[in-house]
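Hi V.,

Quick status before I head out on leave. The structure for the redesign project is tokenized and pasted below; the design run finished overnight.
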């Protein structure tokens, strides 16, 4: 444990840069504890706090620019990859898309304070072809605010942070075990939530063929499209489907049999909305298996596409 404290005290800025880069890169390694601890050490020792803010902001911007460029170049394909490897299937659900669709680039100023939103928001900004200067302005403000709040917490509560670290240091190797156990519990809990989410999804989906049969029946379902509006306009949509951005919009349009589709792997966005609609009393709601691509690849009709 003394070795870890030595690392924070001596190599704090390097640790801040590395953990922030990994955290904002989308991996489940929270950077805030390192930022707070480094700021607490600096405050207690009378050192400057601004280098910590600068380093954390720079690392966050590097990660964000990478996602932004990826969104511009690969768009939804990169989003699908993100959803596949993420421990949080809600990182690409309707809430994230709804916030970005409603507020656009200014939402980047608070994205880092919303769990599961930061990396997806920067990727969506790239896919939406936000201008570079607009992106850098709002994302830079967001990165600076996020870093500054972490440093401020460490500075204000430096005594409490040092006491907590000293307690862990007094436990010796058991202190390291506590940190490792806490990290393992965090990752394990996220994995369990993902596993349960995907298991429920597998039991609830409707196939493209069954959806086509429902559309051709005397009582066609309400079909909700929860993709980005720009994506819908570019690739087209299922005939008769209604575009929605938020849970409120979906609830106002839902009635009878409801089918929801998106463009995330495992239909995460559609499944999340379907679950919310069930909580609001809509019990006949199912996500479309394979999402929009599953429908298209099955050879069914698509309307409104601007790109062929």
């Amino acid at each position: 444990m003394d070795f870890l404290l030595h690392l924070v005290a001596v190599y704090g800025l390097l640790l801040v840069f590395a953990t922030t880069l990994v955290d904002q890169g989308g991996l489940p390694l929270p950077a805030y504890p390192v930022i707070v601890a480094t700021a607490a050490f600096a405050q207690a020792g009378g050192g400057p706090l601004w280098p910590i803010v600068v380093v954390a902001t720079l690392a966050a911007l590097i990660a964000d620019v990478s996602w932004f460029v990826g969104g511009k170049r690969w768009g939804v394909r990169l989003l699908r990859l993100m959803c596949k490897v993420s421990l949080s299937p809600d990182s690409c659900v309707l809430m994230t898309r709804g916030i970005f669709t409603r507020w656009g680039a200014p939402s980047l100023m608070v994205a880092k304070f919303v769990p599961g939103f930061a990396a997806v928001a920067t990727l969506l900004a790239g896919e939406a072809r936000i201008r570079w200067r607009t992106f850098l302005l709002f994302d830079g403000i967001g990165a600076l605010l996020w870093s500054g709040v972490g440093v401020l917490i460490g500075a204000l509560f430096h005594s409490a942070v040092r006491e907590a670290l000293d307690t862990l240091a007094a436990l010796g190797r058991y202190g390291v075990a506590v940190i490792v156990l806490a990290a393992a519990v965090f990752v394990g809990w996220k994995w369990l939530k993902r596993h349960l989410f995907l298991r429920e999804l597998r039991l609830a989906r409707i196939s493209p063929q069954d959806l086509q049969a429902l559309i051709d029946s005397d009582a066609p379902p309400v079909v909700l499209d929860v993709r980005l509006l720009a994506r819908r306009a570019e690739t087209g949509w299922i005939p008769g489907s209604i575009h929605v951005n938020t849970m409120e919009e979906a609830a106002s349009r839902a009635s009878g049999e409801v089918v929801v589709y998106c463009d995330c792997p495992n239909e995460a966005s559609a499944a999340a909305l379907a679950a919310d609609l069930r909580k609001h009393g809509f019990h006949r709601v199912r996500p479309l298996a394979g999402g929009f691509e599953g429908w298209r690849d099955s050879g069914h009709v698509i309307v409104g596409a601007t790109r062929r």
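Above is the designed sequence. The first strand starts at residue 222 and ends at 225.

G. will cover questions while I'm gone.

Best,
W.
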